[in-house]
Amino acid sequence: MTRKETTAIRGEMDEPSTPNWAVILASGGMDSATVAYEARERGYEPYFLHTSYGQRTEGKEFDCAKRQADELDSEFLRVETSHLATIGGSSLTDDEMAVEDADLESNEVPDTYVPFRNANLLSMAVSCAEANDCDAVFIGAHSEDFSGYPDCRPAFFEAFQRVVDVGTKPDTTVELVAPFVEWSKTDIAQRGVDLGVPYEHTWSCYRASEPACGTCDACAYRLQAFQNVGVRDPIKYEERPDY
């Protein structure tokens, strides 16, 4: 029985209509947490899909993603994708590669890029959406991601939507939604503050599971965003530089 069929049965007793559902690619970070609240604001019931792919902080990320789902009383599914670590090529999954310090001015692809990760993750999310009769897949990619990560660019998501349309059943309609793709991290932080996202239950650091290092790319963009909106980031840091 699919997610919508289950809800529809409840709806016969409780509600006159069946809600729309959206699979949320939930990393445990602030972008995906914000996109979950954005999806709910747009009228979707979030269905959290979290993947562990051998990243350094996978345990912490899982805990945060699960807590976010609990906060929204949402469905939660964890999937193991260890093949990405086996393939390698990223400092996030290879302990022999050091995670570099942040360089917010660089347009080079950073060593934290996991080769073609989003194609892998979106494929699973679309499978989940089709199997559970969900209407959309939400991903929290933003403009400062695609300056360095090629699989975060608007053209990539547009192309992937065509893959979804061609590669699913004729009666399947799954919309790929990247609402922040033209936004900055600061825009996302402001939107999350407005939506009441519990950022204390999010994790971004590439290096550590607590406290956050404060100096990797993920920490730098996050701290800069909170500094820009005038809100103190609620998680713990080893360092809190001004960015």
Main structural class? alpha/beta
Could you please say which CATH topology applies here?
Rossmann fold
Number of domains: 1
- What is the CATH architecture assignment? 3-Layer(aba) Sandwich
What would your notes on this structure say?
Mean pLDDT is 92; it is low at 6-16. Helices cover 41% and strands 11% of the residues. The protein has helices spanning 3-14, 30-41, 58-71, 83-87, 117-131, 143-146, 154-167, 185-195, 217-229; strands at 20-25, 44-52, 75-80, 136-138, 175-177. It is globular and about 50 Å long. It has one domain (3-184): HUPs (Rossmann fold). The protein contains nine helices and five strands. The protein has a five-stranded parallel beta sheet with strand order 3-2-1-4-5, with helices on both faces.
List keywords for this structure.
alpha/beta, Rossmann fold, 243 residues, 41% helix, globular
Brief write-up:
By secondary structure, the chain is an alpha/beta fold. Helix content is 41%, strand content 11%.
